[in-house]
Each structure stands twice: as structure tokens, then as C-alpha cells.
Amino acid sequence: MLDNIQIVMVNTTHSGNIGAAARAMKNMGLSRLVLVDPKADINEEAIQRSSRAEDILHQAVITDTLEEAIADCGFVVGTSARSRNIPWPLLNPRECATKVAQAAGQNSRIALVFGRESSGLTNEELHLCHAHVHIPTDENFSSLNVSQAIQVMCYEMRLAAISEGGDQSSADHPIWGVDWDYELASHAELNGMLQHMEQTMVDIGFLDPNTPKQTMARMRRLYQRAGMDKMEINIMRGMFSAVQRQQASLKTAESAEQDGDSH
Amino acid sequence: MLDNIQIVMVNTTHSGNIGAAARAMKNMGLSRLVLVDPKADINEEAIQRSSRAEDILHQAVITDTLEEAIADCGFVVGTSARSRNIPWPLLNPRECATKVAQAAGQNSRIALVFGRESSGLTNEELHLCHAHVHIPTDENFSSLNVSQAIQVMCYEMRLAAISEGGDQSSADHPIWGVDWDYELASHAELNGMLQHMEQTMVDIGFLDPNTPKQTMARMRRLYQRAGMDKMEINIMRGMFSAVQRQQASLKTAESAEQDGDSH
What we know:
Chain A is an alpha/beta fold. Helix content of chain A is 49%, strand content 12%.
């Protein structure tokens, strides 16, 4: 299970936090660190704070965007302190660990995404996540250091990994309770379907291309929540392609009609 | 929570089982019994087996079809001994009780559906359920009496009701972890959306009306699994209506084109 999990840090501004995160990960048996457009170097301070977890720092993957970082992940969880304008599935850390164990039981890659020290994750970034996780804190003092948040989450991941097979809701128990017939779709495949859906909605005049936000955010939330498999993605995309072919013949027919009028 | 739950018995053939079910329900604090096209009467034997739960028998609702019985329910669970040709979300009784408590926390009506003494529920009936529940039994002796199965499920419902508010995953904790902005769609609303989807797929030539089964079963599974809210239903239906309007104008344009040719 733990090998399926990558810790994703977005726009981290302090080298020490990157080092401390690497140490927290290694303490709990995780090794995959992804840094999205980091604003701090992996410097001497980072290595010193990592204690003897330099190997994780050396192997850390650096990407330009969060999209790249999570492209091959089947389950993506973002840490969130605030509640959102559109409500999103929200887990506590233990519930999150159970879901991660279940997704890992289906050989999915999992991403746990942590935001900026100053401002966390943006709404756009949080909307890319299947679910959000909130670490319970004193509401009068709720802002955790990012490496501490990573420590708490990695600890819960480890507890779940240890209990694997131990209980019904753990990793030997697939995410839908039965062995599924198709693999979970990756984030990239889900994105492809949602882009196809948005383009189709625009083509047929259902969606205003200038204000797609709320509708598409709700559609993304719906399909991410369901945890789509690859066959379900294929069916949806097949339907959208059929709609687009129809739209094309409509345009042809209309222009043909105009030619007819011009006789 | 318990008041939100209805026990649905399909084509029950023994009056004694209906009476015993009523008693089991009352023992655990449930009261809503629905009989779908019962093959046995509420007779002296039923009343005697119900002990002092005649009130449940007298108030029992009788319907012709399972669809009618679950029309206003937001969460429907079917008991299943067998695994299916298409895998479906499968819960154990305790997991089921947690989900029921969460749905009840959102004021949804819940249906627990039990099949025939002889043959259980059909695939068609099981496909109407958001999830299936399997009561663990000795695999060499796995067939429970229907009233015993109802007893086990009502017992788990009662445990969940007692622990309400007691733990994170119970009824004070909404099904998606946050207070949602729209109500869960009812079974009838979900069905309306799926019928609209199927008709649209047929209109645009994506779905062969003679063999829609597998595709539509997968779509039903997808949207039931997601637990759609009313707004999501509206968005989907709005999209299908737009596709159908487009299809209509295509037909018009084509006939106009033919008129043009006929000049």
C-alpha cells in the first residue's frame, strides 16, 4: 500500500519543510515525494532537516503543474482547512487512510496533495481532487505546518498499511466491496472525459464557454466521487462523440439547406 | 434514523415469514413494512408469528412492483447471496448500517430489499439497488430464512441508530462528509434521468434500442454509486434535452434539404 502513495507538495516556499517532509515520510515507510513548482531549493537546510532521508530528496520528482504530478493517479486527496463554495466529499484522516488502502488494493496510484505554507491549495487545485481531507485542529489555532500535516497523514497511512487484511474496510477489501471488472480510470483519463463532455456541451449550445465553471465543477465532483472505471469512461466518451458527429451533420445539412435557398 | 427505513419483501410466499419479519422489525424499532406483490396472505398464521406486532402488519403497504415500493427512496440496498455478472457495490451488514445512518442523516428514505424464499432477488431487481449487502454465512450452508435475514439487518440498523452521533462515520456525519447544497435525488428522479439518457443515446444512434442492457446497467451502476443530488440530475437532463433539440433540428434541416433537391 505505502508504495502506491505519493506525497505532493505544491509551491513549497521553505527548504526546511521539504526536508522535514522527507523525514516524516521515511519514518512512516513512504518514499515517493513530488514537488510541484517548488519555490525553495533542495539545499543544505533541506538535507539537514531530512535527517537521514536524503535518498527521498534525491529521488524527488519535480513537475511544473499539479496536473502532471497526479496524471497517473486513480485516487487524489487534497488537504483543506477551509470549506468550499461547492461542497466536496470531505474525509477525516482515518477515513482517508481507509479509502487509500482500498484504492491501493486495486493497484491504483494515490496522491496526497499539500498546499502552500501561506495559503494552502487554491479552489482550482482542490477541484482536481476526488476528496478532501481535514485534519481536526483547534478552530482558534487551525493552521498546521505543512511538514506536520504530512507527518499526521503518513502516520494514518502507516496504521492502515499495518492493519491491511485485518479488517473488512481495509486493503484486502476492494473499494466497491467486490473485485471490479475494469481498472479505475486514471486522473488523465477522467480529465479527458470531462474535457470531452465540456466541449460537447459547448458544441450543442448547452454550456456558455465563457461561464462553464460551476456546471463543470459539479460534473467533475460527480464523476470523481463515483470513482469511474475505464469502461464507464469509454461509454461516456462514445456518447459524446456520437453527439458531436450529429452536430457536424447538422452543420452540413444547414449549409446544404442554404444552398437550396440560394437557387 | 429507524423511521427512515422501510423493509421491502418481494413475492414472499409464506405468511409465517411476513409475520416473523414484522416481529423482528418491531423488536429492533422499525415499523415500515412494504410487500411487493406478495404470494401469501396476512392471515392468522402471519398474525400469530408476529407475536404482538400486528400493528406493523395492519400498516403494511402493498405494491405491484419493486419500482413503486422504492420510488421515493434515496438509498436502496438489496440482499444478495450470489455475485453478479456485472459487479455491484457490495457491503457487509455493518458497512450497510453506516451508509444507511449517513443517508438518514440527510433525511433520505431508505429501502432494504429482501427477495423470494426460493430464489432471492432477480438481476433486474438487484440492478435497481444502489448497493448490495451480503450477510456472511457458512459457504456450505448459506441460505438464510428471509425473516432471519431481516432480523440480522434490523439488528445492525438498531446498533447504528444507538451509536448515532457516537462516531465520525455515523449519522451526524453526512454521507459525503460535508453538509451538501442539494438534496439527494430520489430513485424516481434518478430513473427519470437514466430513461432520458437511454432515449437520447437511442435518438442519436449511439445505443441499439434492442440491446441496451449492458450499457445502461453500467450507467445505472455509475450514477447510483455516485449518489446523485437533484442539481446534478438537472444538469444531466438539461444536456440530454439540448441533444434532443439538436436532433430535432437535424431532422428538419435534412427534410428541408430534400425539398431543396426536389426543385
